[in-house]
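Let us work through a complete example step by step.
Step 1: write down the sequence.
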Amino acid sequence: MCRSTPVAPDPRVERAAAMLRAGGFKATIIGWDRGWNLPSREEREGYQIVRIRLPAPFGQGLRNALGVLRWQRALLAWLLEHRDRYAIIHACDLDTALPSLLVARLFQKPIVFDIFDSYADAYRVGSFRRPVRWLEGLVVSWSDAVIIADEVRLDQLGGARPRRLVVVYNSPPDVWSKWNAVRNETGKFRIAYVGLLDATRGLFPLLDVMAQRPEWELDLAGFGVDEGRIVEQARRLPNVRFHGRVHYNQSLRLMAEADVLVATYDPAVPNHRYASPNKLFEAMMLGKPIVVARGTHIDELVEKHGCGIVVPYADTCALDAALGRLASDPDLRQALGRAGRRAYEAYYHWDQMEARLVSLYRELLAQGSESGASVGADRK
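Step 2: predict the structure and record it as tokens.
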């Protein structure tokens, strides 16, 4: 499994590895350590993470083109060197797909193209957006299977026609029983945001609200391109706790201790109009209400299932009013949380996503065996 992040954490790719291991496959994640000097190898329960160390900044768009090319060259070298040790290549996003596709075709291995985010819509590629979308379409057409995080993302595929298409939502494992007993012990209304620290995630309006509401508390965690500016403002506020980059279990604890979660993405960002983020499904699994922004697709899911409140993006007054309503009405918080939990159980449960992914891999493995390809996978 190839992913251009340090995987520290990277919930979607880590969940996929865990799902595949549960289905009888041995998974190795190849990640890109851009300068954090994380362990080059890390053993997790049932899978391994291997990190390629190549210093490069985050969020630089075309200015980091050389860094991306160096990463792709290093990934290509790893895939070639270890070609006898894996059966299937799982390429996450376009910046791992090209070397993965080349090796897959050279050695007749099945390739899965997992689109976490459309590169053309999610990243700062400027005037290259059209050729990048064209390139994504080619990879979609040439891959043996394509995974998307929500049906709405079919629009981003344009005219490309995948051979197999599977929808795997960003659903977390069902650990509700573990975290349900965790409570907010501070006595204050508590909000949590765990994720990318990016100005387009509505964090500056949220901090403005916190400045006006000293009686509330905000737990803020993550990293990202705008981390410096966001943390600088957060540290001026005594009611905001910044936790930095946290392990996934710690992020779940922060969310479980909160009264409400926030995920207000900017709909002006093309990729945000197709958003189906971890935070939404984590809120559902934990039975927590969530506040989201209008026009981001998340709002459609929240309104469909009645599990949160929708506000206009960057509208500080509307955000304050929505949070104030939740702060003053515990019964409303519980009702919205229960609705989210019902939706998770009915439509987005981890077991359903695991079954889809494992079924796809078994089909690909069987296809490879029939074609005579080298598929030296460890199977139960």
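Step 3: interpret the result. The chain is about 45% helix and 15% strand.
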